[in-house]
Amino acid sequence: MRKLAWIVIISIITVSAIVAAYLAIEGAKHEKEQAPLLVNGLCESFFGGLFTCKADIELSKPIILSSIGMRLGGQEATIALPEPLMIEKSFSITYIVTPNKATLTIHETAPPSIITFATSPLYPGKDMCKPSLVEKQNVNLTSGAAFPYEDHLKPSKDYAYIAQVVLVPPRASGVESLASIDAKAFLLQDTLAWEFYEAQPAPLLPRSILIPLGGIPSHGAYYTKLTILYSKIAKDAPNTIPMELRLYKTSVIHLVLRLRSGEVLDAVLPIYCH
Length: 274
What we know:
The protein has one helix at 2-33; strands spanning 37-46, 50-59, 63-72, 75-87, 91-97, 102-109, 112-118, 132-142, 146-150, 160-167, 178-187, 191-201, 208-213, 215-216, 221-232, 240-250, 252-259, 264-273. With 274 residues, the chain is mainly beta. A hairpin with a 3-residue loop joins strand 11 (178-187) and strand 12 (191-201). The model is unreliable at 1-32 (pLDDT under 50).
């Protein structure tokens, strides 16, 4: 009987060790697969040959960049940095194409710095300027109450999403009608990834707000939840304001970040054409 008890105990210890080892391996694998950053941004094509991209990058740990590229279709504009660049805090990248030149700018926040490079021009064709409407909802936004929209929309290497908030503010004027709109996008339901905030007299609130829903699809870092908040600030501002939420599937441009470690992070940014 005592021998059988020892066999049971040894079996339990062995199984526990195997399970622990498996969990440790899977945890390390998951940690390795997770991107060290969040990326969200928007590219806009304007009539007249102007194309702009702005990407905001939030870091969970410092990174060392060796090159930055913008890829559109089969073309890529790549900046090979003169020397590896360590970035410790969140930063942004701006890519601007005009009929005369193209530039890519790195905006660091800590320490504050701006580095601009001349690069190759990329411009979306007309076939990339046809977003498809996925969903539309009409809502009356009540002051102080957030309107949540949640859907597990996964971007890919070929497309991303844009949420467009269309407002119909009433006719009012002056500081007595001050109001605000606050839109947030979340990653994995609980991490704020992008924020828009606008506070002006109600008639001057933007009629249309674009909320980009891009990310790094290969790492599962994309945006699945929105909250939109209307706030009445002054006494004459309306208690409710009509809103239409439109969700579009769009073409993308790729922001390709190559790290000194050899890792390549490929983020997609939605394209919106005016």
